[in-house]
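Weekly modeling sync, notes
Attendees: S.R. (lead), two postdocs, one rotation student

Agenda item 3: backlog of single-chain predictions. S.R. asked that every request posted to the team notebook include the full sequence so nobody has to chase files. The rotation student volunteered to paste the first one in as an example of the format we agreed on. Action items at the bottom.

Example entry:
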Amino acid sequence: MAYTTIDDPSAYFQTALYTGNGGSSTQVVTNDGNSDLQPDWIWLKNRTSARWHLVNDSSRGASYNIYPNEEDAEDVGGSGGNTSITSFNSDGFTLATDTGDGGWNEQGDSHVAWQWKCNGGTTSSFTESGGNPGGTIQTNTTAGFSIITTTGTGGNGGTIAHGLGAVPHLIISKGRSDAGAWSVYHHKNTSEPETELLNLAIDGATLDSPAYYNDTAPTSSVFTVKGSGDINGDNRTYVHYVFTEKQGYSKFGSYTGNGNADGPFVYTGFKPAWVMIRRTDAVENWIMLDNKREPFNVVTKRLYADLNNTESTSGTRMDFLSNGFKLRQSVGDINTSSGTYIYMAFAGHPFVSSEGVPTTAR
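Predicted structure, as returned to the notebook:
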């Protein structure tokens, strides 16, 4: 068995750090990974000021914003009517001016941009059929990632083809035309994950609800949606980010905390570049860490996907290792005794390359 099919994860995921220049001009943010990366999904956060997270993708178009820490509908431009991202470039993206408190290019503030490559913005269309929604899809089967837009039917049990050729391990769905939950399916969220729901915008524990993914496990070809207004309301519009694991590049797993400073080691099969963790059995925030904001161990700089808070360095300690991550603190949001956690992780380097060359620790 091959160790990995992706020797250079920077071809599909990169983190960029930049300082905002405010209203003075637009700003081109250029990636610095081994490979050029034209992003299709960009997640921005102001680290210095308490501003909303902001997500754009190349299927909806650069100027269309949604906000992970809020359940608001999609808008065009941010505060003050400004567009946030004006273009997806061959190795990065261009930011619009930020004269208000939009948070994407605020004068003198530190910002982070997490970026994933899909299919360069090239989509194909599919039509509504019975209770199955119609929409558009772009897919990268190498990276295990699809971006899908749909118009809802209001029917229960409608299916959406994801194009990955493998069972999805993570689905994040958000209504565009109307306010509503950020629905999250994670294949390790309890023993029956298709019956459960997490909301990216809030800190509540996992919820047993059929109102989103219809209590139906995704298959290698489709995932199923209920007629809920949050995911498949009649004539409402949605976007879905769908992932399947790729050995040496991505991992969507779970672990149980031990409540000890010598916390669990979590094997991913790669040196992490980005990790998001969520406790599922209690009220806790979504914790986001990466190797750009914290290039050396111990990793402490966290942002919260469900909050507009500034970057924090208290309460989270872990090491990014050559083949996973190690918890270094007893705290509720990452490592309480018997607490159950899910995580999403993307690689900086596979543990062992396709040619059998191991990576080094940090």
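Discussion: group reviewed the output briefly. The chain has a mean pLDDT of 93.
Action items: rotation student to repeat for the remaining queue; S.R. to check formatting next week.
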